[in-house]
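JOB MANIFEST
job_type = single_chain_structure
chain_count = 1
residues = 224
[input]
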Amino acid sequence: MSDLGDIKIFSDLDQGSLSELQEEVKDIDYGAGEIIFQEGAPSFGFYMINKGLVKLVKRTLRGKKQILKLVGPGEYIGETTLFDKGTHIAFAKTLTEAEVGFIERGNFFYFLEKHPEIVFRFFSKMSEELKAFQSKLAERSYNSSKERLARFILRLGQEGIELSRSELAELAGVSSKTAIRTLGELEDRGFIKMRDRKIDILDEDSIAELAASFPINLDKHLII
């Protein structure tokens, strides 16, 4: 069951308004590794993460993948096509079992007409993410692979999130070969310990010193 009060853009709504919106939400349960929506598919609304962890992934023409962001409870996906009625530019896939609330576009717009203040919060959140994506793009130009990987190792470790080596590479925007080599080097130096998908941080200060700084402070369950 969705708790819309946990979604940042709805957090100031009174209980009556939340209950009204809740009637328009369809809750869907997904297993780990399931597709929520495909790249290129038409968009009919947007999805709120109630439980679990979801990755938003862009494929290149050559079949390579880039994880655009990881989202957990209180975050949402699919909002970038909400207003232009376009197709999804990336696909969304669960990393863990997840519960996702879906709101159809027309029903949501009808609700916005009665609660226009949400529009400003909605665009404020989108603006924050846009600045984060711009910072990540600049990071790929100015920071080394090791610095970028260290930033994500630190953040994932703090949140207790487990990714495969290839997923970590896709998130940091480096090749799998580079990620494996760098992780091996950090393990040899005693900074981390690899256990299957889990990375144990043994020397957080050294990882933090290596990590590229990121100018945008994102919410707890949003990793870009």
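[summary]
The radius of gyration is 18 Å.
The chain has seven helices and eleven strands.
exit_status = 0
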